[in-house]
Design a protein that fits this description.
single chain, alpha/beta, Rossmann fold, seven-stranded parallel sheet, globular, binds NADP nicotinamide-adenine-dinucleotide phosphate
Length: 263
Amino acid sequence: MSQDKDLDRRHALVCGASAGIGRAAALALASRGARVTVLARTQSALEAVIAQLEGAGARSPALLVADLDDRSALASKLDELIAWRGPVHILVNNAGGPSPGAVLEADEEAFLQAFGRHVLASHLLVRRLLHGMKEAGYGRIVNIVSTSVREPIPGLGVSNTIRGAMASWAKSVSRELPPGVTINNVLPGYTDTERLQALAARVGQESDRDRQAVIEGWIAAIPEGRIAEPRELGEVIAFLASPAASYVRGTSIPVDGGRMHGI
Ligand SMILES: NC(=O)c1ccc[n+]([C@@H]2O[C@H](COP(=O)([O-])OP(=O)(O)OC[C@H]3O[C@@H](n4cnc5c(N)ncnc54)[C@H](OP(=O)(O)O)[C@@H]3O)[C@@H](O)[C@H]2O)c1
C-alpha cells in the first residue's frame, strides 16, 4: 500500500491541533488519508488548520472545540463525536506545556493543573476511545511528551515532573492494551512552535539576551545544527499511527536532532 493512503478509512483525533506539533500531526495524518478531527480550545484556529489540510484525509475533516482542563465536558463531547463520526482509531494526546519556572517555586495548583491536562485528560481519552479501537482491531495512541522524560530540563520544573508521570502512565497502559492497539511517546527536542518562541523570549528576559541569542545557544548543543520544524515531528507521529508501526509499543522516541547524550 502506498504511504499516502496507508491511513485510509482511519479516524484520527488530534488534541492540541490548532498550533505547533499538534497541527503538524493533523497535516501529516490527513496527507496519509486519515479522516482527521482536530481538538483545541480556539475554534478560529482550528478552522484555519482544517483549511490547510491536504491529501485524501482533507475530504472530511471536523473540529472539536474542547478544553482538556474541563474533563466532564470533554467526556460528553467525546461521546457526541463517536456518535456523529464513528470510532476513533488514532489518538494523539497533546496539549500546551506547563508554564516554565523553577520547581521549588511552583505551587501545588501548578502541579495539579498540569497533571490534569496531560495525564488525566489522556487517561479519559484512552478509556473513552478504547472500545472502538478494540472493535476495529486497530488502535494507535501517540503521546506528545518531551525529552525531559530522560533528561530533566532546567527551568521547566513542573513540566519535568509531569512528563515523567506521563511516560510511566503510558508504559503501564502499553502492558494492558489488546493486540493491535499500541501506545507510544514522542519526545520532541527544541521545535519551532509558538511555545518555543515564548520560552526563548522568557529565558532571554531572565538572562538579558535577545530571543535569537537564546535560540542560537540551544542550537549549539544540537548535532543536527538547528531546531526542528514541526513537520519533522508530524512525520514521526504519522509513522507511529500507521500500520507500519504495528510492533512498536510502549516506547519513547526522541526527535531531538541528537541533542540528548544518553544512549
Ligand atoms: N515546541 C517544543 O520545542 C517542545 C519541546 C518539547 C516538548 N514540547 C511539548 O509538546 C507539546 C506541544 O508543544 P507545541 O510547541 O506544539 O505547543 P503550542 O504551540 O503551545 O500548541 C499547544 C496546542 O495545545 C492546545 N491547548 C493548550 N491547552 C489546551 C487545553 N487546555 N485544552 C485543549 N487544547 C489545549 C493549543 O490550542 P488552544 O490554545 O487553542 O487550546 C495548541 O493547539 C507541549 O506539551 C509542549 O510542552 C514542545
